[in-house]
Design brief:
- The complex is a heterotrimer.
- Chain A is α+β, with helices and mostly antiparallel strands.
- Helices cover 31% and strands 27% of the residues of chain A.
- Chain A is built from eight helices and 16 strands.
- In chain A, the strands form three sheets. In chain A, strands 4, 7, 8, 9, 10, 11, 12 and 13 form an eight-stranded antiparallel sheet that branches. A five-stranded antiparallel sheet of chain A has the order 14-5-6-15-16, with helices on one face. In chain A, strands 1-2-3 form a three-stranded antiparallel sheet, with no helix packed on it.
- Chain A is flat, with a radius of gyration of 26 Å.
- Chain B has one domain: Aminohydrolase, N-terminal nucleophile (Ntn) domain (Glutamine Phosphoribosylpyrophosphate, subunit 1, domain 1).
- Helices cover 37% and strands 25% of the residues of chain B.
- In chain B, the strands form two sheets. Chain B has a five-stranded antiparallel sheet with strand order 8-1-2-9-10, covered by helices on one side.
- The longest helix of chain B is centred in the middle third of the chain and has 22 residues.
- The radius of gyration of chain B is 18 Å and the shape is globular.
- In chain C, strand 9 and strand 10 form a beta hairpin.
- The longest helix of chain C has 22 residues.
- In chain C, helix 2 crosses helix 3 and helix 5 runs parallel beside helix 6.
- Chain C has six helices and ten strands, in the order αββββααββββααββα.
- Chain C has one domain: Glutamine Phosphoribosylpyrophosphate, subunit 1, domain 1 (4-Layer Sandwich), CATH 3.60.20.10.
- The radius of gyration of chain C is 18 Å and the shape is globular.
- The chains are: A alpha+beta, B alpha+beta, C alpha+beta.
- The interface between B and C is large, with 37 and 40 residues.
- Chain A: This is Proteasome subunit beta.
């Protein structure tokens, strides 16, 4: 996949290779296009050919698409309570393992009935935001008294994600969708990278699925007040930040209520790094020394 | 209606700024038998007179369910209506697949209107000679009645009647407009059936065989069986 | 109209001997037959008002709207053949969405107006399509403030400070010209436009609704219908004034 030499000739313009500069490539093109035989005369014309990657290498390898995410966010958590739904994330986007972008809002308000939080590739999330923006603008223009609710957004995202995975070109994200459904009941669901999805009273996407959900399971009850829910959320975030190296101690909690979506100010939780195991990581490990 | 040189195709504007071909297509709607729709926020009723091609044939259906909470009644060229009903059902399925929710009547109506409008502006084909009455409900808006015509116009109505001799049905509905706004389903059905009988040929008695009835209530479209229709007719 | 019946007026691809394209002019007649649309650009926004004729009592008021948002920051109102109006508004929506996805920013008023004009014009060029029978007023907020554009059925497009299309446009135009467009605010313009719509309404057409939308500071730069608590008093005052005029004459 090495870009080939280019010539910046005035007649042809920059980034275009004229005939003759690269005999090897000319040979590749000669006499085998769908539109008929390409002769030297044609190639010698002023048209040249566009700057391109190595044609041969392309033929050898199958087409590949995004196979590694670059800038990523980790866990996203969602929890229902009596008066609405909470969403929580940290504000970090990592470049590989580097804690690169530390003030990223990983929650998006979709409309008054719905907000989403993401894990995974930041740029793919930006793309999904664009899609949702188009959707809500359509709603706005239609002005027929209906808006898409959280359940519809959730279903839509599963369709988008599954569609992309079926093209072998997945969007590298999973989402937590929070809000209200058509009947006016609180809704909380998660959508995975390949379109897997489920709704529950509490959900978590990313690594937090393993860390936060046991806490949610233990403490969740349907009549949680907002304060109680925030406390549970904070303890879950604490558990995550202590165990997840991609997580940072700066969080945002967003809530969706009947009044709409509000995304809270960033905050930190008190952390404790004085555990004995942190001083001597192998102390209790069998076979450690 | 006289022939003039501006009425040969739908791409020609008359000097008065009219599209005669489209207007003629509107006349085709009046060739169909009567359809009545009326109701309020909580329920809507569709009623239609059916016809048969010959004594040996069965009755031609006029009411079609689109999804679990939207139904449509057609009047005009029945073959044209088949295409539109198919369009509605397909869009409804698509919407349900993508958003997990059945399509709202207003979205479906504007889709049909788009398709109808395109057929009046391009030389290929002709305008659909059919009028639709789309009824249904959604959580946000309650029950709705929408009427489309071949020009692509779509209107939201309190109640409506289209098809042959529908004027007398409309007059009847207009008289009962205020009553309808607070009526129960049974009451609405009675008004709809009376309006329908106003439009019946030579004030013949309505029969359960020639009459089709459907309701939308609590977000559910229900098509009534002839036996049920007979019960309502007996109550009149 | 010297060309009527002479056979030069049957297609958009036919010029008359004196160089006119009659089909496009006839489509303009459809615009003139539709209810009045009037718009003004004020210091703090744009207001568009429509005289929406209500064919019967069976129609639901407040629906079947003639002013439509095409993006958050832009909307159109128009006169003429209503299905065409819907088609043009749909196209405008697509243009807005397309611009947004390509350039990542809201479409400027000028670009949108020109793209709509191109669309109109396209339909005057080929025998296989017909010209649209509607003209539109476009209200828009972009990076350098509020704009009102008039986009006509023949593909012409102009930036306006005040514009009228449809039935009674000339009478309405003289009224709009009397307004102090350099200093008028949207709140005042709502009253004035309601007055103009009611005053120019032709009594032969029975029922009508005065539909008003705006894009202004008060609406956070979004194209929305004028809130009822502002629109309804304006309509009421206009209704009273129009009745007073009718009594005098």
């Amino acid at each position: 996949m090495i870009p080939r030499r280019t010539a910046h000739e005035r007649v042809i313009g920059p980034g275009v290779v004229p005939h003759g500069v690269d005999p090897e490539h000319d040979a590749l093109y000669r006499g085998r296009t769908a539109r008929g035989t390409v002769t030297d005369e044609v190639l010698r014309g002023v048209r040249g050919r566009p700057f391109t990657i190595d044609g041969k290498a392309r033929e050898k390898a199958p087409a590949t698409r995004t196979q590694t995410p670059y800038v990523t966010g980790t866990s996203a958590l969602g929890l229902k309570y009596a008066g609405g739904v909470l969403l929580a994330t940290d504000t970090l986007a990592c470049y590989g393992s580097t804690k690169r972008y530390k003030s990223v809002e990983r929650v998006k308000r979709v409309n008054d009935k719905c907000a989403i939080a993401f894990t995974g590739e930041l740029s793919d999330f930006a793309y999904v935001c664009d899609l949702l923006e188009e959707l809500t603008t359509e709603d706005f223009c239609e002005d027929d008294g209906t808006t898409r609710d959280a359940e519809e957004i959730y279903q839509y995202l599963t369709r988008v994600m599954y569609n992309r995975r079926s093209k072998f070109d997945p969007l590298w994200n999973s989402f937590v969708v929070a809000g209200y459904d058509a009947k006016g009941e609180a809704f909380c669901g998660t959508v995975g990278m390949i379109g897997t999805h489920y709704a529950d009273d509490h959900v978590a996407a990313g690594f937090g699925n393993h860390i936060a959900r046991p806490i949610f399971r233990e403490f969740y009850k349907p009549d949680l007040t907002e304060e109680e829910a925030v406390e549970i959320m904070k303890s879950a975030l604490y558990a995550c930040v202590m165990r997840d190296k991609q997580m940072m101690n700066k969080f945002q909690i967003a809530k969706v209520t009947k009044e709409g979506v509000s995304i809270g100010e960033p905050f930190a939780v008190p952390t404790e790094w004085g555990y004995e195991k942190f001083y001597n990581p192998t102390k209790f490990s069998p076979g450690g020394w | 209606m006289f022939r003039n040189q501006y009425d040969q195709d739908m791409l020609t504007w008359s000097p008065q700024g009219r599209l005669h071909q489209v207007e003629y297509a509107m006349e085709a709607v009046k060739q169909g038998s009567t359809v009545v729709a009326c109701g309020n926020q909580n329920c809507v009723v569709l009623a239609a007179l059916k016809r048969k091609q010959s004594k040996l044939s069965s009755m031609q259906g006029k009411l079609f369910g689109v999804n679990e909470r939207v139904g449509v009644a057609v009047s005009g060229l029945s073959t044209d209506s088949a295409t539109l009903v198919k369009l509605l059902r397909e869009e409804s399925v698509r919407e349900e697949f993508v958003f997990g929710r059945v399509a709202s009547p207003s979205k479906l109506a504007s889709l049909v209107s788009k398709s109808l409008q395109i057929s009046t502006r391009e030389s290929a084909g002709r305008p659909c000679g059919v009028g639709l009455v789309i009824v249904g409900s959604s959580e946000d808006t309650g029950c709705q009645i929408l009427q489309t015509c071949p020009s692509g116009d779509v209107c939201q109505m309190w109640c409506t009647a289209i098809g042959a001799r529908s004027q007398s049905a409309r007059t009847h509905l207009e008289k009962h407009l205020d009553e309808l706004k607070v009526a129960t389903v049974n009451k609405v059905i009675h008004i709809a059936l009376r309006a329908l009988s106003e439009s019946n040929v030579d004030s013949e008695e309505l029969t359960s065989e020639a009459c089709e009835l459907a309701t939308v209530e609590s977000n559910l479209y229900v098509s009534k069986s002839p036996e049920e229709v007979q019960v309502y007719l007996d109550q009149l | 109209m010297s060309g009527i019946g002479s056979g030069y007026d049957l297609s958009t691809t036919t010029y008359s001997p004196d160089g006119r394209v009659f089909q496009v002019e006839y489509a303009g007649k459809a615009v003139d037959a539709g209810g009045l649309t009037v718009g003004v650009k004020c210091v703090d926004g744009v207001v568009i008002a429509c005289e929406k004729l209500v064919p019967s009592k069976l129609h639901k008021p407040g629906t079947n709207r003639r002013t439509r948002a095409v993006a958050r920051h832009a909307g159109v109102g128009g006169s003429g053949y209503t299905p065409d109006l819907a088609a043009v508004a749909d196209r405008a929506r697509a243009e807005c969405a397309n611009y947004k996805s390509f350039y990542g920013d809201a479409i400027p008023g000028k670009v949108l107006a020109e793209r709509m004009a191109h669309y109109y014009h396209l339909f005057t060029l080929y025998w296989s399509v017909r010209p649209f029978g509607c003209s539109t007023l476009l209200g828009c907020k972009d990076f350098d403030g509020y704009h009102l554009y008039l986009v006509e059925q023949n593909g012409e497009c102009a930036k306006m400070r005040g514009a009228c299309i449809g039935k009674g446009k000339n009478a309405a135009k003289t009224e709009v010209e009397k307004l102090k467009l350099n200093e008028i605010t949207c709140a005042e313009a709502v009253k004035e436009l309601a007055r103009i719509v009611y005053a120019t309404h032709d009594v032969k057409d029975k029922e009508f609704e005065c539909e008003m939308s705006w894009v202004c500071d008060a609406s956070d730069g979004e194209f929305v219908r004028v809130p009822e608590d502002i629109a309804e008093p304006a309509r009421e005052a206009a209704r009273v004034a129009a009745q007073g005029d009718a009594m005098e004459s």
